[in-house]
Design goal:
Largest sheet: 6 strands, mixed
Order of helices and strands: HEHEHEHEHEEH
Structural class: alpha/beta
Strand order of the largest sheet: 1-4-3-2-5-6
Number of helices: 6
Oligomer: single chain
Length: 154
Amino acid sequence: MLTHILVCILLGFTALESAAKSTQFNKQVWHDVKKQNLNENWIAVFWSLECPPCFKELKIISQMLKVNSDLKVVLINTDSDDEIKQEIDKIINEYELNTLALLHFADEQAMQSRYIVDPTWYGELPRSYFFNKKGQSQGRSGLVDKLILQEWLN
């Protein structure tokens, strides 16, 4: 019986360790992320479980992280549905992206969250924002290839 309890506790800790630690997106969090990355070139990558090209982009970022663990990339999941958090965590873990800053839209707050980022963005994915060292950004819809990511982040 004691062995069974210890195994359950150990499995519980393992599950907690592998869970992706994501912060709920809001105006203040977005402001803080931009402030923390000031004086750096960085990219905010918006993705969803329902976006096949997003997975290609996540794979590219994962491969780049294996070469350079100091990449300045923030991943923001746009699904805004608390019920699928485990699926989101599974993808983050599968692509080994736990070391990046991870954010997620609040449940039922996708439209408001998109407006905070960019009032002209209507939700098309994948969507990336390239921030320069002065904090200025340029949005881009569609898959971003490895060459563009490398050039921007180096």
